[in-house]
Write a structure and sequence with these properties.
This protein has about 240 residues and is mainly alpha-helical. About 70% of the residues lie in helices and about 0% in strands. The protein contains 8 helices and 2 strands, in the order ββαααααααα. Strands 1-2 form a two-stranded antiparallel ribbon. The chain is globular. The N and C termini lie far apart (about 55 Å). About 35% of the residues are buried.
Length: about 240
């Protein structure tokens, strides 16, 4: 692992935040290009991107605070704002981001909601796939001990597993996007379906603390719910498409 980049004796950069910052820049550039290609409103898209980024930060932090380590922050509430010390839960950020982003687009361009969902889906997939390398360098989200040839520090490199799965998912999203029979919303629903399926598999390899569990980890339960929602969405859009054919 390589959690810190030492630029000098006095300047250090956490690799996690460096990776995330670069990923955000890459995704915003790609998002802008996609908006122009699909002839959507650039202001709505960029405003939505800002809302998604802000909601992701808040949601990921609050999920960690209230679910994973509530006793720590009850004793020292000001530590909630010490985000440089880490402590984020992806699903907390993702759920709040989707909710806030969807509400904003619904308000601004209700009839095009599914178009914007499909617009952001590949970008979100890329962000997750590349962002997991930040986890890898930071040493968080680590896997169980194993003796496989590709083990890193004697553990499953679950961050790399997740990245590879998500980048594979991205390739399928882009293939579907080019299909002449694609229905609005299908790219988004395919994304959440495949992401949830991949996350369920990753959970079986992970060994880091993720809060209390009820049979399965909270992330597994959320993944099951998202998988169900994705399948329902895919079935619904396919049914609508069949009726119009």
């Amino acid at each position: 692992m390589y959690p810190i980049m030492n630029l000098s004796d006095n300047i250090q950069i956490p690799m996690y935040y460096l990776v995330i910052s670069l990923v955000i820049c890459i995704c915003l550039i790609w998002l802008t290009k996609r908006v122009r290609q699909q002839r959507l409103n650039i202001k709505i898209a960029l405003d939505t991107a800002f809302i998604i980024m802000a909601a992701s930060l808040v949601g990921a932090r609050l999920f960690h605070v209230f679910y994973e380590s509530p006793e720590l922050y009850l004793d020292n509430p000001i530590a909630i704002f010490y985000i440089w010390n880490g402590g984020f839960v992806f699903y907390g950020g993702a759920l709040l981001a989707v909710l806030c982003g969807s509400l904003y687009v619904f308000w601004k361009a209700r009839s095009q909601l599914h178009k914007y969902m499909d617009l952001f889906a590949p970008v979100g997939s890329l962000a997750y796939g590349l962002g997991r390398w930040g986890c890898f360098f930071a040493g968080c989200c680590y896997g169980k001990f194993c003796d496989l040839p590709w083990a890193i520090a004697g553990r499953h490199p679950t961050q790399i597993y997740a990245s590879m799965w998500e980048l594979g998912t991205l390739s399928l999203l882009l293939a579907l996007e080019k299909s002449p029979r694609k229905k609005e919303g299908q790219v988004f629903f395919l994304w959440i379906t495949l992401h949830a399926l991949g996350r369920l598999m990753m959970e079986s390899f992970r060994d880091d603390f993720r809060g209390p569990s009820v049979g399965l980890s909270i992330s597994s339960w959320i993944s099951i719910a998202i998988l169900g929602a994705g399948l329902v969405g895919l079935f619904h859009t396919r049914r609508v498409l069949s009726k119009k054919s």
